[in-house]
Amino acid sequence: MLTSVFTLAASSTAMAQDKLAMQAPVDHKSKAVEQMALKNLTNKENMENPSSDLYQEWENKRTHAVYAMPEQYKIDLRGFHMPTTSRIITSNYGRRWGRMHKGLDIKVYIGDTIRAAFSGKVRIVRYEANGYGNYVVIRHNNGLETVYGHMSKHLVKENQTVRAGQPIGLGGNTGRSTGSHLHFETRLCGTALNPALMFDFRNQDVTGDYYTYRRSTHDSESLQATRLRGKNDDKGYSKADGQGTSKPGSTSSKSDEPVAKSNKDFQWHTVASGESIESIAQAHNMSVEQLCKLNNIGLFTPLRKGQHLRYQ
Q1: How many Å apart are CA 213 and CA 70, to the nearest integer?
Q2: What's the CA dihedral at 132, 135, 139, 145 to 10 degrees?
Q3: Rounded to two decimals, what is the model's pTM?
Q4: Most CB atoms within 10 A, among 164, 199, 267, 307?
Q5: Which one, of 295, 64, 285, lies nearest residue 177 by Cα?
Q6: What are the pLDDT digits (tens) for 45-96?
Q7: What are phi and psi of 137, to 5 degrees?
Q8: Alpha carbons within 13 A on the beta-carbon side of 279
């Protein structure tokens, strides 16, 4: 009788072990399904609201919606694309003319292709006469929002998903601008960061695979980034294309290298309602061709009230 009890107990234990063994693959499969469902949910959230861990909402009204800024945040710079092939920085991030300039100005010509720096979703597509002109704001999966200002044309719409390198607009001179260029900003939670911390336009590259923002050191790191990767000096560049052999921050001593004037040395005409390229050229005793050449525009480029044209 005792032997029968032991046999029955052993048989029950074996059956339990067999059941557990049979259940194990099911548990693994269930876990994989749950992980896949979680991944799909995360991807869907990122499609609807990129970086939802930083931004509580997705909206198209405020250009710079400000959210709580983390003390530290690691930004993935892999999978980037330079917004323009231009290597020339005409104005740095920082104080300028008594106010804060919250991005970099990159020399581009009217009609040059402007591309998304990272993959993400277009949040703002708008025109601002006294500011950015035609501009686009994109929120990216790495937490950044990038701003592209003064373009001549938009090529994307709000809520459109874009990939890194996709054309989003054309270079221009719209809004509060004194010459064709791209105003480029990088923002985290609505707060502007120096793009030179992450982008090296002269070398057409990013500064690394990652950039870690630290609130306590951002200002000092920003100054160093400007010294290393910003505009060379107040007089211009060591080479016409910004690719001189002198070290960043140094001034070339070669007399045959061009020295660019600053904007304050130029003479500007503010376009009034009803004015044309021909009437403006005539008013300043110059040819239409000269006026177009100075402003990198064509004979049939439409003018906007308030636009600034250089005439000297």
Answers
A1: 9
A2: -30
A3: 0.64
A4: 199
A5: 295
A6: 556 788 888 998 999 999 998 899 999 999 999 999 999 999 999 999 988 7
A7: -120, 125
A8: 8
